[in-house]
Amino acid sequence: xxxxxxxxxxxxxxxxxxxxxxxxxxxxxxxxxxxxxxxxxxxxxxxxxxxxxxxxxxxxxxxxxxxxxxxxxxxxxxxxxxxxxxxxxxxxxxxxxxxxxxxxxxxxxxxxxxxxxxxxxxxxxxxxxxxxxxxxxxxxxxxxxxxxxxxxxxxxxxxxxxxxxxxxxxxxxxxxxxxxxxxxxxxxxxxxxxxxxxxxxxxxxxxxxxxxxxxxxxxxxxxxxxxxxxxxxxxxxxxxxxxxxxxxxxxxxxxxxxxxxxxxxxxxxxxxxxxxxxxxxxxxx
Length: 285
Ligand code: SAM
Prior knowledge:
Layout: E1 6-10, H1 22-30, E2 33-36, H2 39-48, E3 55-57, H3 63-75, E4 79-83, H4 96-104, E5 108-112, H5 117-125, E6 132-137, H6 142-152, E7 158-163, H7 168-179, E8 185-189, E9 197-199, H8 203-212, E10 221-225, H9 232-248, H10 253-264, H11 268-279
Parallel strand pairs: 1-4, 1-5, 2-3, 2-4, 6-7
Antiparallel strand pairs: 7-10, 8-9, 8-10
């Protein structure tokens, strides 16, 4: 049964205070309370628009306990709003566990869409947008970060990352190691703010820019990488070389096909036919 209460998940500005929808203002002014990551931050936004709704602190550390209390209030029929410090709540921001809990409990959860840094960055970077993958923040430790990047090396969609300024140069340097300096890259900084900038268009050029302008390595930023181009010809040559080596090592055709299909992300039956052809010498002349 649907409870009477309702939670609105409200997007707020990512810099420019004017980037808030009419509906967001109406909702924030009419709900019983606004749950905010940082109440001082959100108070400034509400004050700017003359909204005096009660603010309740809800962040990653008190989400469980306070979230349960707010759930009770929603079940009693109250209407509340969830906001984060900037942009769309739950997008690299806390709240996902709580929203799942509310849905489970039958509370209606309604999005009030608006700004998000990832969409703002994509909308003006000029990279392909028909397919993209949002990776949020990379692991902060170098080893774990490189491991994640290695796993993304062949990603055929545009990739979007959030990154802290003090890690920008290290991250771009790691990215060059995996994608090469000529790979398409755009860094979108300080979106909607006075010093907004887009720096592109290759990894090498972007790294060079920030090394030459350390004063710009600050503020908030989004890193975008163009889709990896599949080098089918090179893959084919490397797959055949691997098949030969594995066959010479005495592995069965089926095992070889399994390993090579997984390595090059190709259908097993197609690789199996290639293994058979190589084994019988059809492709060796
Ligand atoms: N919920 C937010 C959203 O919808 O975009 C993201 C919150 S996340 C904790 C903060 C990160 O988002 C920043 O470190 C930065 O990578 C990115 N970001 C937020 N505002 C930005 C802005 N104005 N310009 C560029 N990046 C921004």
